[in-house]
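Structure request: N-methyl-D-aspartate receptor NMDAR2C subunit, Solimonas marina.
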Amino acid sequence: MNFLESWRRSWRELGVGEPDEPLFNRLLDCYAEPQRHYHTQQHLAECLQNFGVVRQLAARPAEVELALWFHDAIYDTRAHDNEARSAAWAREHALSSGCSAAGADRLYRLVMATRHDAVPDGFDAQILVDVDLSILGAAPARFAEYEHQVRAEYAWVPDAEFRAGRRRILQAFARRPVLYSTEAFRAKYELQARDNLTRSLAALLADAP
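Returned structure:
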């Protein structure tokens, strides 16, 4: 993944100013923070690669791509406002770069959609959320690595508490009629994601008190 190419393309397609390369470097530094194990440059690269496959389907691809850049810009496992702070940062920078208020607000809403607490509103948000959740449909080895990475990010949480919380999260996904909103991602990831969730939940439930 050529990060700089993605960054420059997004801002140029947005039609405002020149790409802010100091901000580009700052964001990459964010994704390299030591407390991160899953929400890293690896995750960012996987998201951008997956988006590249369906980029032509988006109504405003530059906004979706920039939302991917910002969606985990702020990540603190002890906080509950990571998406809100990341979204505010994205909107603030979009406005200062010359983006319209409407465009900056769309960018804010796209980032907020990655809270995964509601059905995505609009096809671009559906694409973005499907991209972010593509890890659920990863090959078993990558999914297992992802689970270890998530546990490492929450190393401060006692094991029983982590496992209970993790069960709740995965069960909420498993209860959804479909995991992916777009046809392209359903075709590619839905079955594997269901298998991954079933296997993970079985392991978590086997050790439940």
